[in-house]
Amino acid sequence: MANKLVKLSSSDYSGACWGYNFDWQARAFFQPKGTPTVVATSFVVEALFMAFDLTRKDEYKKVALSSSKFVLNDLNRTYDENKNYTLSYSPLDKTQVFNAGLLGAKLLSQCYKYSGDYRYLSEAKKICNYVSNKQNKDGSWVYSNLPHHQWIDSFHTGFNLECLYVYTKISGDKAFQNSINKGLKYYLENFFLEDGRAKYYNNKTYPIDIHAPAQLIVTICKMNCFQENKELIEKVLGWTIENMQDKRGFFYYQKKKVISSKIPYMRWAQSWMMYSMSYYIINQKNNGSN
After folding, report:
1. Mind listing the pLDDT tens digit for each residue in 200-222?
2. Most-buried pick from 28, 58, 192, 230 (CB within 10 A)?
3. What is the tens place of the pLDDT at every residue in 262-272?
4. With respect to CATH, is domain 1-138 assigned 1.50.10.20?
5. What contacts 20, CB < 8 A, 6 or more positions away?
6. Helices H, strands E: what count in the chain?
7. What pLDDT sits at residue 289?
């Protein structure tokens, strides 16, 4: 799989990068098939570093480290008055999506971990500063600066928290600990109902998107607070399996109030739930649960 990821890297950019193998229409822009994004790239890079840890194959680390050039040279930036910045989704757009910027910061933090090059950590902190300063007083974040991106949602909040935590853990810099604490409190208190339903948005129950329960487990496990939140995780996972998993095994895309979408998307639903449940199983094992 790692060898396949290396081969699938997009060409004609400053460093290794990855996109989707289909045209993609987002709310703010259109991305042609193969356009590399910081989001896809960040997850591939994390996988390649993990593959390197397991195999010690230098090619995986070399390719993963080269992705830093894509992040630093090919993505567009939006600056604040203190020269902190966030990143665009891809080289083709100029959006200011906060979780995209932080996924770039996570990537750079991991590149620092595997190279010792402090420049990566310095740039990651500028991005973390930018997004942390955009956090609302209650701990929430809107999706981006743009007027039509002013919603607050569950799984992108989870991305933000995970990335800030990774930067903090790798760097030892506690500058964003208050932001993490406020954000985690808001996340846990506003997106999950007593019966285990995981809300997409902070201010309404439906739709329930499969990404929301999946990301809860990933976020909590990566932030090393599984035991404290085990009851919530099991309640959410139980409801999701009961209400959003088909008897044939796949998970539905979205559960809505009246008519639900049961499309078995591979990337959005199946892969994310597999990713999520793998973290659940690992943490159950590590904490001595059956």
Report:
1. 999 999 999 999 999 999 999 99
2. 192
3. 999 998 999 99
4. yes
5. 31, 33, 34, 35, 37, 40, 267
6. 10, 6
7. 52
